[in-house]
Amino acid sequence: MSAASLTELMGIDLPVIQAPMAGVQGSALAIAVSEAGGLGSLPAAMLGDDALRKELAAIRAATSRPFNVNFFAHQPPVPDAARDAGWRQALRPYYAEFGANEADIPQGPGRRPFSAEVAEVIEAFRPPVISFHFGLPDEALLARVRSWGAKVLSSATTVAEARWLADRGVDAIIAQGLEAGGHRGLFLSDDVGTQVGLFALLPQIVREVRVPVIAAGGIADVQGVAAAQALGAAGVQVGTAYLLCPESTTSALHRAALRSEGAAETALTNVFSGRPARGIVNRAMRELGPISAVAPAFPLATAAIAPLRAKAEAAGSSDFSPLWSGQNASGCREVPAARLTRDLAAGWVASPASAGS
């Protein structure tokens, strides 16, 4: 599929999608990327109804260009008292170290899946593109999204997941390579060993499906964009490279980590949410994981570690913060998101015609 197929499908000028990144961005980054001609994205899984309405209203007021709203499609886990107790026990020495109180553990899972209630909130805004992580919601919800003309995207970490998504009629598939920062999009298996690097995964998915395939994972510059194009991608999704842009809400501690030599060391960890996600290695990951057998299922692990994060950050430390980052932070630049978007797209324009077009 060519870039033209993706840009025409999404109504955008440039085959660049800004990855939705909960916790480090809001509407401002999405607006900047969309205004530049790419597809800006708003992460919505951590937003309550009022916050979601506010962010969508801000986007609608600031741009007439297409934008994407991203949701999780996970099944909420059944709380496990024994596992929760084991997790708290593992964290207890840190509570003592930081003077945190277990009674301060917040209630609620912190992340919610797409639901009829959420669809009710967003339908008034009719987002042009809806993307999902961890598969897809049920058919009734998908039909509702499609009823207002929205295009549907979802992430695949394996060829099997790409086929599954194609069989359910998604408009485009995001091929998420092992290099990508943040949560793995895997949903047919919990085995992170099934995920491979982007440039091994991408051509396999391109051969298997008949919808545009978007490359994600480790793409941070024009060379990465050109390589994705050469392997048949119809566009790219970029996240980590945007983390230092002024429109991002990336914290000062996270920004410092991205600028440091430590950014070269990332790993998959479940200690911050209960589900594997790639971030810069820090103390919590080293001492509790990076993959912990006692961490509660996603997203229940978040609550108990939150007070430790708050205490450490107040003391100027990112030891207990999720420092999400892909394996290639070299493209992080403190430039406006619009400029970064156009610079990335230049790699597409300058490279040979798309493979498979």
Describe the fold and architecture:
Residues 350-357 have low confidence and may be disordered. It contains 13 helices and eleven strands. It has 357 residues and is an alpha/beta fold. Helix content is 38%, strand content 13%. Helix 3 (49-62) links the parallel strand 2 and strand 3 (67-72). It has helices at residues 3-10, 27-35, 49-62, 81-98, 116-123, 139-147, 159-167, 198-208, 222-230, 252-259, 283-288, 302-314, 337-350, and strands spanning 16-18, 40-43, 67-72, 129-133, 151-156, 172-176, 182-183, 213-216, 235-238, 266-269, 277-280. It has an eight-stranded parallel β-sheet with strand order 1-9-8-6-5-4-3-2. The chain is globular, with a radius of gyration of 19 Å.
Write a brief caption for the model.
The protein has 13 helices and 11 strands.
- Uncertain residue segments: 350-357
Order of helices and strands: HEHEHEHHEHEHEEHEHEHEEHHH
Total helical segments = 13
What value does the average pLDDT take? 94
Helix content: 25-40%
Query: What class, by secondary structure content?
Result: alpha/beta
Strand percentage lies at 5-15%
Spatial strand arrangement across the major sheet = 1-9-8-6-5-4-3-2
Largest sheet: 8 strands, parallel
Termini distance?
Answer: 5 Å
